[in-house]
Structure prediction request, 564 residues.
Amino acid sequence: MQKAELGVAVVGDSATQLLSDAIRGEAYLRGLTVSVYDADYDSVAQQLIDERSEVYKSKPAYIIIYLSVEKLYNLFSETLCEDRPSFANNIAGRIETYWQKIGKFSSAEIIQYTYIEKNDGVFGSYALSVPESFLYQVKKLNLLLTDLAASYKNAHLLDLNGIATLIGYDNMFSPQLYDMASLTLATGVLPRVAKQTIDIILSARGVSICKCVVLDLDNTLWGGVIGDDGMGGIELGDLGSGKAYVRFQRWLKELTYRGVLLCVCSKNDERNAKQPFEEHPDMVLKLSDITVFVANWQDKASNISAIRETLNIGMNSIAFIDDNAFERELVKSKLKDVIVPDMPKDPSEYVSYLQSLNLFEAVSYSREDRVRAEMYRSEAERRKVSAKYDSIDDFLKDLDMISDYSPFAAFDYPRIVQLSQRSNQFNLRTIRYTEDEIAKIASDKSYVTLQFNLKDRFGDHGLISVVIMKSEGDALFVETWLMSCRVLKRGMEAFVLNTAVETAKRLGYKKVIGEYIPTAKNAMVADVYENHGFTAAGDNRYVADVQKFDKLNTFIKGHDNAKK
Prediction:
């Protein structure tokens, strides 16, 4: 069956045909089937304010707004001096109006490009101290956009100024192309901008670009070979190229704070490999930062496969960092979905090179992201301990599992959206939600919502399951039921259904109706209702009579947070 096309509309105040072509090409390379509507030249207001415009008729899933710094400068130069201190506020207000109209007239998500922070040279560096200067106002405008984006959950900013900072304004803009064809982005930068645009779209659609970085050690995290050179001989800190390795480690440490997992895969004796983490004064990374540590003499492709199995993540969400070209090529040939950057020879270039690849695009950030590494380390410990038990029931009993549940809480909307976007296997109907949609559902009395956390004696899994039920007469219809795969086979399915049926009964409903809509990835839940006390009703629908429903066995104890 042919994939449905994803609609994208591009609007801008300059010529955007080549940008649209670049986005089409990048989408094709990344496996996305898209149709791109390129709006007429410099028709942003007409397209976004008029609900009958061609942009809205194209029914896009994403609207890309590119407003150039060159056109912004033209507006600024026509502004009276006494009005210039409020210039950024006025432009931000205009952009917010566009966002409001998009939210009113469509369900599209917005990708707004930031402005390149160009200094016109009129005040020199002193422009940063003069509210009437262009540089002052364009910097202020970008800050206003970041504040706006925090309030509009359907709006995502693409840091065009960040690209300009990396490659220079002269590589972003061609005066000749601008004068001849009103093109404000040089052709050489278009693939990079298109890639970052598609990165945002993929992330918004739940396709994680990189969840885990698997690291070599010798000549990757430090200079030299720990087994040969010893603790005093490896390059870290002020020794040799040590500052470059410290800078690289510091950047990796920052990745852990936003939820990226760090793992080690080294051909080494484990005792030697761990020694710098435990004893070297210049090591930024510690063993507590490493989710899975593998040091042996097996081939790295096999070890990465074992790490993937331990973490239960996709190969395409793993990046493998190794200075050795042979090891990189081996992993590329054996594990084709793993991301394997061709690292520079000079460790001083590691950070800038990896930053340029934009491997860690995100459209949301939640509490679970901050503690993800600890969650996965706890899961690895659970797996070790489970092997010591004679039966799975004995192990589950000894876990002391407790599930806190409640209606949707505003604080957890970002995590609920993440789950809806990323859950594919345990997802009965595979509906994706934005944060605004979750907020509307939570406040709509025709819906009943439930969110579930799970913790045990090893740690807290965080928010791991979501149920959305809609009132249909005397029944509640399960519009969405999804769950993180990391808690499967622990009785959570039974606990969720027990709670859903009990909630329906308490609210006076007679039935709970579930539905399974098959996809290429959710076959594992095809029989979940039938295997848990529901009766088949045809057309992939299943029904439970709340009065006759037999409570399912589970070792999970419940705690209703709504009763606090």
Summary: The mean pLDDT is 91. The chain has 22 helices and 17 strands.
